[in-house]
Automatic annotation (TrEMBL):
Listed name of the protein: 6077_t:CDS:1
GO terms under biological process: uridine catabolic process
Domain of life according to the entry: Eukaryota
InterPro entries tied to this protein: Nucleoside_phosphorylase_d, Nucleoside_phosphorylase_sf
Origin species: Ambispora leptoticha
């Protein structure tokens, strides 16, 4: 690492770049699509206006950012990799370098444990987390402890997910809505069985469905996005607004597999879903109003 950082509480380079995402003020837009893979970010970035400049940043810690315009409106596409921790890095560090509201929509992939069909799109209204309880595996574990904790629900912004916004762009026959679980492992806490480890997860999917029968899908990031929006501190807003959280969020996922049948999506279908969803997300984000007044008065 060549950079010299100041402030151990929230490290930044001398020119104001946040430590892990690697961006500074002015390099990320208020409207953001976040994805897991740089290739998905590049695919969506091809839909940005070609008559305005596109800034590309790659951080040493695996974040990949493209900022440009769609129909004249600034939008960033940020690839964050995988997992709850990367979503936490992304939301906190981007929040630190962008003024005003943030509207963030995750475009990811997931597996189905319910009626969501392989190759369809899932738009969750809420998400919970499935977290491994490490204490259960300790030598001195309490006899009544459980190997996995399933959290309470955190919610998407209902306006962003409404039929007037995100849902209007997805063909009804290809769309599922409902509840999503975000797990802290691709393997153990998603109920995948691995004989190399004593994961105590043989009935985990059934336990998830007992607590939340409406669960459609499992993946690894959406819960943290919804959670961070919930705990984001308020901004000054117009008096007419009900929601003054500084971060508004939603998610949209491609259903790549079915955990019950082991069916897996074809790559041609993924290419179609990425293009169709990318256009939908850019349309929604470019039209959403920020409703922000810096002095907080009407
Ligand atoms: C696992 O293969 C990854 O794919 C899913 C999971 O949440 C996890 O990040 O999402 P992305 O395709 O958005 O990365």
């Amino acid at each position: 690492m060549q950079f010299k950082f100041t402030n151990a509480n929230f490290p930044r380079t001398a020119d104001g770049r946040v430590y892990h995402v690697g961006v500074k003020h002015g390099e990320v837009a208020n409207r953001i699509i976040t994805v897991g893979e740089p290739s998905r970010a590049r695919t969506i970035a091809k839909l940005l206006d070609d008559n305005s400049p596109i800034l590309t940043i790659e951080s040493d810690r695996g974040f990949f950012i493209k900022t440009g315009c769609y129909q004249g409106v600034p939008i960033s596409i940020v690839s964050i990799g995988m997992g709850l921790a990367m979503m936490d890095f992304f939301v906190r560090e981007v929040r630190a370098v962008v003024d005003g509201p943030l509207i963030i929509i995750r475009f990811g992939s997931c597996g189905s444990i319910g009626p969501a069909t392989t190759g369809s799109i899932m738009v969750p209204h809420s998400a919970f987390a499935v977290l491994r309880n490490y204490d259960y595996f300790a030598d001195d574990a309490e006899s009544n402890s459980k190997p996995y904790n399933i959290t309470e629900l955190f919610y998407a912004d209902p306006d962003l997910c409404s039929k007037k916004e995100l849902l209007q762009y997805i063909p009804q026959s290809e769309l599922h809505t409902g509840l999503n679980g975000s797990c802290d492992s691709f393997y153990s806490s998603q109920g995948r069985l691995d004989n190399n480890f004593l994961d105590a997860n043989h009935n985990l999917i059934e336990q998830i469905l007992v607590k939340y029968p409406d669960t459609r899908t499992l993946e690894m990031e959406t819960f943290m996005l919804f959670h961070m929006a919930k705990v984001s501190t308020p901004l000054p807003i117009k008096k007419s607004q009900a929601n003054n959280k500084s971060i508004r969020v939603a998610a949209m996922m491609m259903v790549l597999s079915n955990r019950k049948t082991n069916e897996v999506v074809e790559s041609e279908r993924v290419a179609y879903l990425e293009e169709m969803s990318g256009k939908a997300l850019l349309n929604v984000l470019s039209k959403v109003e920020l409703d922000y007044e810096e002095n907080g008065s009407d």
